[in-house]
From TrEMBL:
The lineage of its organism: Eukaryota, Metazoa, Chordata, Craniata, Vertebrata. The gene is Fancg. Keywords: Signal, TPR repeat. One of its GO terms (biological process) is interstrand cross-link repair. InterPro entries: FANCG, TPR-like_helical_dom_sf, TPR_rpt. Residues 1-26 form the signal peptide. This is FANCG protein. It comes from Molothrus ater.
């Protein structure tokens, strides 16, 4: 409450500088908000000089102080306080304010000093051009202005590199992040910078460079586990499955261990770069995966790569985690690797089927069927007009809610139907054709979806159509096994209505006609499909969306296994028919 006096202002500003640093160091958390103490200090300076600045914003206040206050004894403490103000503005990503402040600081010292060469980063050039004031022995600082300048340079380069990375300007981002990596920082922040360098190189399609940066991050700080997560992603993109699985295994083991007590690698500094850089893109890149997510990724990758025994082990481990309240531990947001829980159950069933554990697969599917029964409405109306009303007000919100409900209902319908589908295949593998026909029939009954539908619902409907196709093929195959060739023929005809030109459906249709001794029709259909199948198959591969993982094994089981034998029989028949025809 004492009036401001010029003789004691240097001491007052130094005490303010030190107290703010102590406050930052004690909190050990990211800097947020405004440094009100700095503003009050500047107003005290103006008061002592007989000026006023209560109505000015912080940037205008700094401009007024640096331009009008020329007392020599105040220059050093004002510059130190200016560096601290820059730290607060950096933490708020106010890069323009930081650049303007250092322009003023350098101009106040030497009008010709604040100059940025072409090709250089303006902000970094201004910070580097700032001449640190000499530290007086009578007014010691808890953190020197020189060290603070180095930290500001590192944080500014890191922050701008992240902004350029988010904007897709990868070469500029790479240059700025490399500048930050050569700066003054702790091991923790250096590992984060190398992780971001790795992500940048990965997006530039330079996987080997990305791996070098990510491995460097782990060498600097092995507790930087997001780097290990990104290593697995790079190996996945390279198709190096062994290395990817090894990285995921290491990540899972590391996540399961208690991290060592975080010892600061630079305990003498109260202001550090990690307190200044906290952006959404950094949070996303450094997201720490939950152990269960990594366990699921291991299961999924093993299943995709055909490592069935390992996939089963990982899926069963994951399902056991569900008993421990996994859904409360992991947010199932857009960043999570976890799909919807019923899909995980279905993938586990697929793995169990492929491992020959058919009864276990049936049990897992029964869990899905039981859990989704009450979630499917008795009547599911899917209307095309929702697509039009979704974009028109005032009904947009209502239409969006209806669309979301219908998507959820269609997903539940698909999961339940897929449960019956997998049970059908499992019973078929057990040699129980009648039980298999029953489950395939239940599947067919669940996926009678009327079209047309809103475009936004098309992916869900495509999955349902694929499930219906696979269930008809599966049931038709079992009818063939039971000698019920007419019923089999009907199922294969319906399959071709759903997916015209489908190679498996076409081949089974020919087989059913052949078994019914309708050999001329079989031969005609075989010739027709032989001519059209390659072009249509290629067309189908180039279009459509990828199948859910839990349906891939069903698709493989539906492949017609006797193509060559059937082709020889039909060719022999055609050859014999040609000989019998009089010339």
């Amino acid at each position: 409450g004492l009036p401001a006096a010029l003789p004691v202002l240097p001491l007052e500003l130094t005490v303010l500088y030190n107290s703010l640093l102590f406050t930052v160091g004690a909190s050990d958390s990211a800097i947020k908000g405004e440094a009100e103490g700095i503003r009050q200090g500047l107003l005290r300076v103006l008061e002592a000089c007989g000026a006023c600045g209560q109505d000015l914003g912080t940037e205008e206040l700094w401009e007024k102080v640096l331009q009008e206050v020329t007392v020599e004894e105040l220059q050093a403490p004002l510059h130190c306080l200016g560096a601290l103000q820059a730290a607060w503005w950096l933490a708020a990503s106010q890069l323009g304010s930081v650049a303007g402040l250092f322009q003023l600081l350098s101009t106040a010292e030497d009008p010709g000093r604040a100059h940025c060469s072409e090709g250089q980063n303006k902000l970094l050039s201004l910070i580097k051009a700032w001449r640190v004031p000499p530290e007086g022995a009578s007014l010691p600082l808890v953190q020197s202005a020189k060290d603070l300048k180095e930290i500001l340079c590192t944080a500014a380069a890191f922050l701008q590199g992240l902004h350029e990375l988010e904007a897709g300007n990868f070469p500029i981002a790479l240059s700025l992040l490399q500048e930050a990596a050569g700066g003054f920082c702790s091991k923790n922040i250096l590992a984060q910078i190398y992780t971001c360098l790795g992500c940048c190189a990965q997006r530039m399609d330079k996987p080997q460079t990305a791996l070098q940066h990510l491995k460097r991050a782990l060498q600097v700080d092995f507790q930087c586990l997001p780097a290990l997560s990104h290593v697995a992603v790079v190996y996945h993109d390279l198709g190096e499955t062994d290395a990817e699985l090894q990285a995921l295994t290491l990540l899972y083991e590391a996540l399961g261990k208690s991290p060592p007590a975080a010892a600061s690698s630079s305990p003498c500094f109260l202001m550090q770069a990690e307190l200044l850089v906290h952006t959404p893109v950094l949070t996303s890149l450094l997201r720490r995966r939950h152990p269960s997510e990594v366990k699921y990724l291991l299961a999924q990758r093993c299943l995709q790569d055909g490592r069935v025994a390992d996939a089963v082990e990982h899926y069963l481990d994951f399902l056991s985690l569900l008993q421990e309240g996994l859904q409360q531990q992991v947010p199932l947001d857009g960043n999570s690797a976890l799909p919807r829980i019923p899909e995980v159950f279905l993938e586990a069933a697929s793995a169990l089927e492929q491992a020959g554990r058919h009864q276990d697969a049936i049990t897992v599917c029964e869990e899905v069927i039981g859990r989704t029964t009450d979630l499917i409405p008795q009547v599911l109306r899917v209307e095309q007009r929702l697509e039009q009303s979704e974009s028109s007000l005032p009904g947009a919100e209502l239409a969006g809610g209806l669309l979301s409900q219908q998507k959820e209902s269609l997903c539940c319908l698909a999961w339940r139907a897929a449960g019956y589908l997998h049970q059908g295949w499992a019973w078929a593998k057990l040699g129980k054709s009648k039980e298999a026909v029953t489950q395939f029939s239940r599947c067919c009954l669940h996926v009678c979806v009327c079209l047309p539908v809103a475009e936004n619902l098309q992916p869900e409907v495509e999955v349902l159509q694929k499930i219906r196709l696979l269930s008809l093929l599966g049931r038709g195959m079992q009818f063939l096994e039971l000698g019920r060739n007419k019923e089999a023929l009907l199922d294969f005809q319906h399959s071709l209505q759903i997916s015209p030109g489908d190679p498996a459906a076409a081949s089974y249709l020919v087989q059913a006609l052949w078994n019914l001794n309708r050999k001329q029709e079989a031969a005609a259909q075989w010739q027709k499909f032989s001519q059209n199948c390659p072009a249509e198959d290629g067309q189908q591969q180039g279009q459509g969306r990828p199948l859910p993982l839990y349906l891939v094994s069903c698709l493989e089981q539906a492949v017609f296994p006797h193509s060559e034998a059937l082709a020889r029989s039909i060719q022999d028949y055609l050859g014999a028919a040609a000989q019998d025809t009089p010339s």
